[in-house]
Inverse folding.
């Protein structure tokens, strides 16, 4: 196992979560893509891209399960780096020992940023009724089958969990403006 690489990946994920928690506590996390959060995500994404170029995907066999999950978190948050996220998806699908749910989450995130419907129902946002709900799903009648194949629980269970967690978040004052901001961001960084 590459302990130095594992430690680096764990430190990257820890910084991400630390900054997120700090911004969440002061209430500024939910006011668009916070510049401090974006800076952490971009710095981590750029370093992960270097690691992948040097040695491929840092999977569990190389860095251990916890550090491999940290690498997944970094790529999941690399939303301003579409090429990285798109490039990692096949690596996750091909890598040995990577839980299928990680690729499912990344695939949905990519699809949503590309303006497409998701497959696994892992991406959520505030809906027009002011509830936290899954973003549009490509095949709603098949979603629980896809989720099961990826090792994810049924969608209804996850919806209930997301709605409980969302009670701690402020609802957007202007959901339409929030969606327009997200669309502008997607265009700015090259998702569309």
């Amino acid at each position: 196992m590459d302990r130095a690489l594992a430690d680096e990946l764990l430190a990257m994920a820890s910084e991400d979560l630390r900054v997120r928690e700090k911004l969440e506590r002061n209430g500024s996390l939910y006011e668009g893509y916070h510049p401090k959060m974006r800076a952490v995500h971009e710095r981590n994404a750029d370093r992960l891209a270097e690691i992948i170029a040097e040695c491929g995907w840092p999977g569990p066999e190389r860095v251990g399960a916890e550090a491999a999950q940290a690498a997944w978190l970094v790529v999941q948050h690399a939303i301003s780096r579409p090429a990285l996220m798109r490039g990692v998806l096949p690596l996750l699908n091909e890598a040995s020992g990577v839980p299928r749910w990680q690729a499912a989450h990344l695939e949905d995130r990519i699809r949503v940023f590309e303006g497409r419907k998701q497959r696994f129902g892992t991406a959520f946002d505030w809906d027009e009724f002011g509830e936290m709900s899954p973003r549009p799903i490509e095949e709603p009648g098949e979603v629980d089958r896809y989720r099961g194949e990826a090792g994810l629980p049924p969608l209804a269970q996850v919806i209930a969990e997301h709605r409980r967690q969302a009670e701690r978040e402020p609802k957007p004052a202007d959901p339409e403006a929030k969606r327009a901001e997200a669309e502008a961001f997607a265009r700015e960084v090259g998702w569309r």
